[in-house]
Amino acid sequence: MTGRDTTKDKYRLYGWEVSPYSAKVKAYFRYKGIPCKNIVPNIFTLKQSIEPKVGKVIMPVVFGPEDEVLQDSSVIINELEKRYPDKSIIPATPKQQFVSMLLELCGDEWLTMAALHYRWNYPENRTFILNEFGKSALPYFPGFVQRKVASVFAGKLKGYLPILGITEQTQDALEANTHDILQILNRHLESYPYVLGQSPCIGDFSLYGPIYAHLHRDPSPAKLIANYPNVLGWVNRLKDGSAEMNSGFIENDEIPDSLLPLIKLIIEQQFPLLEDSAKAINQWAIENPDKNKLPSRLGDTMLRIGDASASRFNLTYPYWMYQQISDFYHELSSTEKDQVNLLVMGLFETSETVIGFLKAPLKNRVLLKRCRLYLE
After folding, report:
1. Burial 195-218 (b: 16+ CB within 10 A, else e)
2. Ranges of residues in the chain whose predicted pLDDT is under 50
3. Of 64, 129, 139, 319, which residue is least crowded by CB atoms under 10 Å?
4. How many Cα atoms occupy the beta-carbon half-sphere of 110 within 13 Å?
5. What pLDDT does residue 246 have?
6. For position 7, what pLDDT does the model report?
7. Are strands 36-39 and 69-71 parallel, antiparallel or unpaired?
């Protein structure tokens, strides 16, 4: 008698090892202990099964036990947190939840620039990545066919560099900024196994995605993460799912001083881009009263990293990410808002602009559906 096939009782996670968002979700499944079958989708699966379900060839995608489909790493994790509330990765206190959401924004929308830069602007990575892409996309084909097809994927991804403002004018500043982030994390992780204490939060998983999948796995620059031993240990803990016990976050909603420089960097770097995205969406809504499907970009904006700057597309997706932060903030009590305000104000000598953006309710709300944004 054969045993019952339990595949349908599990979640099925479709993603490649080289994908930062797939790494984020895979580590989350491991930590939570949610039954999951990891599947490396080939090009035919992506075109025939994934694209019709979610709207485009994209990873990660999760199929649930009832064949429900979840796409976008944040959507996947938010939904599974509702279904599996034990060992929650969402802090229950206002400052820590706010910080964890900022860290998620950093991992998903800022560190991806460093990930793409190091992967595609270092020629030493090309052979490794083409082999990785090729083996995943066409596992049973000869190597030369795999690499030829993989070069198409590679060309598309490298094309995102100027879209994001990664140019000769910003590359050095971006690398310096990446080392600043890694140095802050390395110092902070001397005292804590995870960013907010003894258990990982959503920010851990989001930061882990690009750090593991790109900065750690890609061969060049050699030993980029190994130069930061506490970050490397943190990567290994999240990769191995070794945080078996949910020991909790730091008591009393404390945000350690060692984490404050990273919070300041996130706000300085990303809030101006978010403000530009919000302004562009507001203007587009006025000019297109009969439309609700937002373009993925609305004109151009400026990327500023330290003293360097370059033009980049004004992207709309980060607005959806910020909308979650804004919703959380505006649902807080007045006392809880004051606690968050004091945290932010303590980081800046002149904080009126930052606090003003945070306090202002968003004029337009968006929905993420089939990989596209729609005005509600």
Report:
1. bbbebbbbbbbbbbbbbbbbbbbb
2. 1-6
3. 139
4. 29
5. 60
6. 53
7. unpaired
Do residues 315 and 160 make contact, with C-beta atoms less than 8 angstroms apart?
no
Q: Under 8 Å CB-to-CB from 369, ≥6 apart: which residues? A: none
**pLDDT computed for residue 5 by the predictor:** 44
The whole-number pLDDT of residue 354 equals 83
* Alpha-carbon dihedral sign for residues 150, 155, 160, 165: positive
Classify the phi-psi angles of 301: left when phi > 0, otherwise alpha if psi is within -120 to 50, otherwise beta.
beta
Rounded Cα distance, 310 and 170, in Å: 7
- From CA 157, how far away is CA 151, in angstroms rounded? 10
* HSE toward the beta carbon, residue 97, CA cutoff 13 A: 17
CA 304, CA 270: separation in Å to the nearest integer? Answer: 9
Q: Contact, 102 vs 203, CB < 8 A?
A: yes
Q: Which two tokens stand for residue 336?
A: 């809880």
Domains defined along the chain, listed by start: 7-83 (3.40.30.10), 94-253 (1.20.1050.10), 257-375 (no CATH)
DSSP state of 310: E
Structural tokens at position 97: 């939840």
H-run or E-run covering 191: none
- Note the Cα 363 to chain centre separation in Å: 25
Q: How far apart are CA 165 and CA 279, in angstroms?
A: 19
Residue 145 CB neighbour total at 10 angstroms: 13
Integer angstrom CA distances of residue 152 from 8, 118, 147, 156, 166: 34, 19, 9, 6, 20
Q: What pLDDT is attached to residue 244? A: 53
- Residues in the chain, total: 376
Half-sphere exposure of 171 (CA within 13 A, CB side): 11
- Any idea which residue has 């004091």 for tokens? 342
Distance CA 1, CA 16 (A): 35
- Type and span of the H or E element at 25: helix 20-32
> Within 13 Å of residue 192, how many CA atoms lie on the same side as its CB?
23
CA quadruple 184, 189, 194, 197: dihedral, nearest 10: -100
DSSP 367: E
What's the predicted TM-score (pTM) here?
A: 0.95
Whole-number pLDDT of residue 3: 42
